[in-house]
Amino acid sequence: MLISDKQKKILTLLADGEFHSGPELADLLCVSRSAICKQLSGLSALGIYHSAVSGKGYRLDKRLELLDEFTIQGMLGEHNKALVSALEIHDTLTSTNSYLAECSQDNACSGLVCFAEHQSAGKGRRGRQWVSPFGSNIYMSILWRFQQDGIASTAGLSLAVGVAVIRALKTYGFNEVGLKWPNDIYCQGKKLGGILIEVSGEADGPCAVIIGLGLNLFLPEIQGQTITQAWTDLTEMSGEKLLFRNKLAGMVLNEILSVVNGFEFAGIKAYVDEWRSYDCLKGILATLFIGQQQITGIIQGIDDNGLLLINKPDGTLQAFASGEVSFNAAT
């Protein structure tokens, strides 16, 4: 569903979370009061809910902070600002990763950054949908071009990006966050965010990498009902304190740029020790799914190349490069 220009204007007016009367909104948009009601009623499909109170008007159920390029850019260090070839903010996309994949095929420059207020078909790992209500969370992708050593130079990149996200969250004040191999952000056994790396190019030449991040700031309960795993958001973690979405988006982007720039030379080894300090799976009994294969054992962290180590019931220690880890958060 696309958001109309009138709906975007209404949201901008209601973003403060305060009541605004129907006549006030109608006058500002030069439309009828019934048109205001109709435009608002169509927003629930985007995950935006409102209240209507006689004598007061309309109010969003949750204050909205729309993305702002100037504020996001202002959170970047001077060196990292130079790494951004362009920063785009879209009202709605199928997914930020899909959009940048198309841009990459059209020879877009390295350093193209894309944010979206809403994704109609947000992408998670293994074809899962990433629930993406309008204006609530961070949906971001970065196009980065690696010039040397081909696809092999990107090995372990998702782990390094995870380190960058944790750095930003800790700087913002969220300390009870960790990483679940290979690319999930977790808090107290619940998923907070996810990283999706998509690579195209040559085995031993230039390649293009799309680095996608979905991070939950506020996920409405009705939207979260479609998620099949335990999840949380930063609003719940903060105890309902006011969060500044643009500030956090800029901080996360700044840290990711610092990691991605030069990664093809530093590699995952530069981030292994720090990743281990954020590991929320080590010592836990878990099952790794690789296609139809299941491997159950005690997670022993990662090796120096970022591979998952599992101590199997027969006592052998085995390393794995890919797979999906399932565990009981209560253990």
In short, what is this structure?
With 331 residues, this protein is an alpha+beta fold. Helix content is 30%, strand content 28%. It has helices at 5-14, 22-29, 33-41, 69-74, 78-81, 96-105, 157-172, 221-224, 234-237, 245-260, 263-266, 272-278; strands at 50-53, 57-60, 86-93, 112-119, 122-123, 129-130, 138-146, 178-180, 184-187, 190-201, 207-215, 285-290, 293-302, 308-311, 317-320, 324-327.
Care to count the β-strands? 16
Choose one word for the global shape: globular
Q: Count structural domains.
A: 3
The rounded distance between the terminal residues' Cα atoms is: 41 Å
Low-confidence stretches: none
Strand fraction equals 25-35%
Helix content, binned percent: 25-40%
The chain-level structural class is alpha+beta
CATH topology of the largest domain: BirA Bifunctional Protein, domain 2
Q: N-to-C SSE series?
A: HHHEEHHEHEEEEHEEEEHHHHHEEEEE
Strand order of the largest sheet: 3-4-7-11-10-9-8
Summarize the main sheet.
7 strands, mixed
In round numbers, the mean pLDDT is 90
User: What is the rounded Rg?
Assistant: 21 Å
How many DSSP helices? 12
Which CATH first-tier class of the largest domain would you pick?
A: Alpha Beta
The CATH superfamily of the largest domain is identified as Bira Bifunctional Protein, Domain 2
List keywords for this structure.
single chain; globular; SH3 type barrels; 331 residues; 30% helix; five-stranded antiparallel beta sheet; seven-stranded mixed beta sheet; alpha+beta
